Task: structure prediction
Amino acid sequence: MRKAQSKTKTRKARPSFWKQQIEKWKTSGLSQAQFCLEHNLIKSTFQYWRWKFNQENKLHPLLPVTVTPDTKTESSPGASGISICVKGRFIVQLKERFCSSTLSKLIDILEAR
Result:
């Protein structure tokens, strides 16, 4: 009996297990309380993992990226580097050498607007 309980506890401690449960809950149409009750989960643990994954997403948000061909030729000035469109409202053009920490701060500021 003890082995079965320890396996269950180990399984439920894995991030992959909780990611699956949270995805199932999102599509279930149930409240968190009802989902946890029906799936024999501890609601506070469920909420902790949901909070933890949300925090991870805030630290590393995924932004949509559109790649378009560069119409400039190799010899034209400024042909090297990249342009980033933030929220469809701001275009940031970068040359070959740029400060990544400054870019990160700038994107955070623009996203907040």
Observations:
- The longest strand covers residues 82-86.
- The CA atoms of residues 32 and 43 lie 7 Å apart.
- Residues 43-59 form the longest helix (17 residues).
